[in-house]
Write a structure and sequence with these properties.
heterotrimer; A mainly alpha (about 120); B alpha/beta (about 180); C alpha+beta (about 650); B: alpha/beta; Glutaredoxin; 2 domains; 6-stranded mixed beta sheet; 5 helices; elongated; C: about 650 residues; alpha+beta; 4 domains; 4-stranded antiparallel beta sheet; 10 strands; globular
């Protein structure tokens, strides 16, 4: 209902049944089951997880891209539902720190080696 | 140069204490209930009602139609997701009843069948102005609901201003909802 | 009456460990060797007291004494004996008892050390161990008393969580604790070195077996936990980057780094203060792991029953146990030992080991960030995010890849400046094999870029380890003769290291197969249906309802065959445990060398059929096989005798 009508039948012919299932699972693996403990909806048998899988499958058939589906879900449940945290201002440190540590570590090591 | 070396030797200590400090802070908040770490904030607050249509259950007349939110325009109203199979919904029933004395309440029966639902309303009272049915859980997803019961407050402009997840207990009603109604 | 004796024994040990700690601190500067003898006697008595107390608790579990709260909550008279015993450590209070038991045992072992280690260092090590014992006994007695009685004992216990009623999980905690507590020993070595100012090659030689024991135990413990998750949780996964898993993985990574840095210290006397830091952090991460699991701040599938006040206690222990040594480190580590300038080329063992340490510690910090970031973000602005496998695949994996690259070639390199003669020849050979392997991999159906990279790393390491092993054993011209002397020569030629590195290669091969080439079939099947998996077929024969000792089971019977020849019968189950009112799924797994057939039974009935999930996981058992090889390599390397005598001893006493 939210999606404009033009999207609805845009792409559904181009995917076959297996591709739809694979894509659904790929997305489901990155969606947290909110009523479980640390599981993705792909692994969970809870009602909400089942509903969300059906919903995602429907959105894929409607021709939405992965990004649009992730956005759709995070607009309703927040970023908490995404197991792959998006790169945003509040996650800059999360994504960059490991590599910053590595670079500064390399720097310190080079100094050490020179000595 | 020797000063620099000292800073490096202090680094583990500084990092360690900052981590422990935050852990302690979080633990303190959890222990004294300063913060509810379990509840998720609703993403819909400040947004208008989702545009999904909800079929209305009508036990008196057999008319198939959807709930029309325009009927409540210019009014504060509440939307309450519930189900006959949900135990916490029984607990909150008297509080929802109380709420319905002030503002209209729309109930949305989540994954419920009409017969059980009717029995539930007979047993625990029917505070609802209208009851919608969400058989497939699609409405719930559209509203960002992750479990029943959940209660939303909508203002005069059709904007969601409040959401409570879990049973609506009397103290939540008193501290959170009543001030919003005034 | 008997449990009260156990409780009193704990209190006695608690009080005496306090007195012992004071005794150690008072006698710190003394040169009298009698003090060490007293501390050694203390170590023996502590071990005897704690093991008696532990035995009493064990006895209560064996006879199912439901007047004890812990037995009521975690045992049941119908339970098989082995699970009555493992029920002891399957909960918070009992696991702490096991923890202290291992701690006193290890302390007792150190106290019997009769080697060149100086008496001052040894008494400080024993002193630090005693303080650790004291703080954990305080934790047990004040927040988690295992001997708590019930006023009216129930007729029967509440039973152990059926998910935990399993051989894999019965032995997972004890082995893991061997690792955690083993790290407490290397921690004490480091703190003692900071206090006494004595750090040298003897120190390195003495600490190494402890690190190796801890590392091997952690490897086995983690592998066992992951194996349990694989066959018990029933969705075929084996590692979930769950906070609790991370909690045990971080100490493992630190221990791995430590194992390598201590090698540098031992042979070249460099990285002294870094090694001390790692030894401190290894134990800190163990404590942090304990905090994560028991405070309940990061909920997870495996967590124990949680309680914030316990969290606060562990946090206090963590703060003191890490804070004080880190303060000591900041003040003392610079004058521990002034490292001599040593010369080594870029292509030397030194460089390789340095890079190893850099990447391993960065990897540890990455996991720490991933584990704590959601908590911190929530604390600062209330925003909630989730961090799943995708994050670690994007950060942890690329940081670890260079470690694997270097692991294959580092053993070829020499110490110092001398470059190995045949170095480039051997490297070219390994590259040749790897390219060949990558080509073969890319021809497999379903191969992606990541699968080829991961598989090639495994081949790279395989060939590196094998070529190195062959050339080293040839180089030293093993004398043929008695088996034992032959074996000893092999062990002294780094057999342990070769096996451990081979284990990593096997592990990587397993990951490649499981992550990138697994197949899955989902569907609703009824009796008589046949499912095709490659050239095999799986026939749904029957569904039976049976009763186990403490559960009811719905069991499906499938036969797996190839060209009408029966391979095996698979019996996936759904079990219902009436005492707990819980249902578990028991996957049926046919584990073969080249892959597992993994079958899960879902809901259903005769009319509509049953929902069935079937996986074929290629090479998945190599994951645990590889881990076992790593642990085996570790254990072998403990027996390596080092003939080289220490040549430098430095003393900077307080």
């Amino acid at each position: 209902m939210i999606t404009p009508q033009s999207y609805v039948f845009a792409d559904n012919q181009s995917l076959n049944k297996d591709e739809i299932i694979n894509k659904t699972r790929e997305i489901s693996q990155n969606i947290r089951c909110l009523v479980c403990r640390n599981q993705s909806i792909d692994e969970s048998n809870s009602e909400l997880a089942k509903d969300l899988r059906v919903l995602i499958k429907g959105k894929i058939i409607d021709g939405l891209s992965n990004k649009e589906i992730y956005n759709y879900l995070s607009n309703r449940y927040g970023d908490y539902i995404l197991l792959n945290p998006p790169f945003k201002t509040n996650t800059i440190l999360l994504w960059l720190l490991p590599f910053l540590i590595l670079i500064s570590g390399c720097f310190v090591m080079f100094k050490f080696l020179k000595k | 140069m020797s000063y620099n070396v000292k800073i490096i030797k202090m680094l583990p200590l500084i990092l360690f204490f900052s981590i422990v400090l935050v852990l302690g802070l979080v633990l303190y908040q959890v222990k004294y209930d300063l913060k509810d770490t379990k509840e998720l904030k609703s993403q819909l607050i400040g947004k208008s009602i989702p545009l999904i249509s909800i079929p209305e259950i009508n036990y008196d007349k057999k008319i198939n139609k959807n709930i029309n939110f325009n009927d409540f325009k210019n009014n504060i109203f509440a939307v309450n997701f519930f189900a006959s199979w949900c135990a916490p919904c029984r607990i909150e029933a008297p509080v929802v009843e109380e709420l319905s004395k002030f503002i209209p309440v729309i109930g949305i029966a989540y994954k419920d069948n009409a017969e059980d639902n009717k029995k539930f309303l007979n047993d625990y009272g029917n505070p609802y102005d209208k009851i919608g049915l969400d058989n497939l859980g699609k409405v719930a997803i559209e509203w960002g609901v992750y479990g029943v019961p959940e209660t939303f407050l909508i203002n005069r402009n059709g904007i969601i201003i409040y959401r409570h997840a879990g049973p609506l207990l009397y103290d939540v009603y008193k501290t959170d909802i009543l001030p919003l109604l005034e | 009456m008997i449990p009260e004796i156990g409780h009193i024994l704990l209190i006695i040990t608690f009080v005496s460990s306090f007195i012992q700690s004071i005794f150690w601190i008072i006698t710190l500067g003394s040169r009298n060797t009698v003090n060490l003898i007293i501390l050694q006697k203390f170590a023996v008595t502590n071990f005897i007291l704690i093991s008696s107390s532990f035995s009493i608790l064990l006895y209560s579990f064996i006879i199912s004494d439901f007047s004890l709260l812990i037995v009521t909550n975690n045992s049941h008279s119908l339970k098989p004996l082995i699970y009555k015993i493992s029920g002891l450590w399957g909960n918070h209070e009992g696991s702490l008892m096991l923890w202290t038991l291992i701690l006193t045992f290890f302390t007792y072992l150190i106290s019997r050390n009769k080697s060149q280690i100086s008496f001052k260092l040894l008494s400080s090590i024993l002193g630090v161990q005693t303080i650790i014992l004291f703080s954990f006994l305080a934790f047990i007695l004040f927040t988690s008393n295992p001997f708590e009685r019930l006023e009216t004992p129930p007729i029967d216990g509440k039973g152990l969580n059926p998910l935990l009623q399993d051989p894999g999980l019965a032995f997972h905690p004890p082995i893991l604790y061997l690792g955690y507590v083993g790290l407490s020993v290397s921690f004490s070595f480091a703190v003692a070195a900071l206090i006494t100012g004595e750090i040298n090659q003897i120190w390195a030689r003495q600490i190494r077996p402890w690190i190796t024991i801890a590392w091997s135990a952690l490897t086995l413990g983690i592998a066992l936990g992951s194996w349990w998750a694989y066959y018990e949780l029933g969705w075929g996964g084996w590692w979930f980057w769950d906070p609790v898993e991370n909690a045990s993985f971080m100490p493992w990574l630190i221990a791995t780094a430590l194992l390598h840095s201590v090698r540098l210290l031992e042979t070249r006397l460099i990285l002294v203060s870094w090694t001390v830091l790692l030894a401190i952090l290894g134990f800190s991460f163990s404590l942090l792991g304990t905090f994560i699991v028991r405070s309940g701040l990061l909920t997870s599938v495996h967590a124990f029953a949680t309680d914030p006040s316990r969290g606060i206690f562990i946090l206090i222990i963590l703060t003191i146990a890490t804070g004080v040594p880190l303060i000591l480190y900041a003040i003392r580590s610079s004058d521990l030992y002034t490292e001599k300038k040593i010369e080594f080329s870029v292509f030397s063992k030194e460089t390789a080991l340095l890079i190893n340490n850099l990447f391993l510690s960065t990897a540890t910090l990455t996991i720490l960030i991933g584990t704590l970031y959601p908590l911190f973000l929530d604390a600062f602005n209330g925003e909630k995010i989730s961090i799943g496998p995708a994050y670690y695949n994007a950060t942890f994996a690329p940081i670890m890849a260079p470690v694997i690259l270097i692991m294959a070639i580092a053993p070829f390199l020499n110490w110092g400046t001398k470059i190995n003669n045949n170095f480039s020849k051997k490297i070219l050979f390994i590259i040749f094999i790897t390219v060949l392997g990558a080509l073969v991999l890319s021809m497999i159906k379903g191969a992606t870029l990541f699968s080829i990279v991961c598989g090639s790393l495994s081949i790279w390491l395989f060939s590196g380890v094998l070529i190195n092993f062959i050339s080293q054993t040839k180089l030293n011209n093993l004398k043929k003769g008695e088996f034992r002397s032959w074996l000893n020569q092999l062990i002294n030629n780094n057999l342990g290291m070769h096996i451990a590195h081979l284990g990593v290669a096997v592990f990587l091969a397993g990951i490649t197969g499981e992550q990138f080439f697994k197949t899955e079939i989902n569907g609703r099947k009824n009796i008589g249906d046949i499912i095709k998996i490659g050239d095999r077929s799986l026939k749904f024969d029957d569904v039976k309802f049976e009763s186990g000792p403490n559960y009811k089971s719905e069991m499906a019977i499938f036969t797996l065959s190839k060209n009408n020849n029966l391979i095996d019968t698979l019996k996936p189950e759904k079990r219902f445990y009436p005492v707990q009112q819980t249902q578990t799924t028991e996957a049926a797994i046919l584990s073969e060398f080249f892959g597992d057939t993994y079958l899960v039974l879902g809901d259903g009935n005769k009319e509509i059929g049953w929902s069935v999930r079937l996986y074929y996981n290629p090479l998945v058992s190599w994951i645990w096989g590889g881990a076992c090889l790593m642990a085996l390599g570790g254990i072998i390397s403990i027996f390596r005798n080092r003939k080289t005598k220490p040549n430098i001893i430095i003393r900077n006493t307080i």
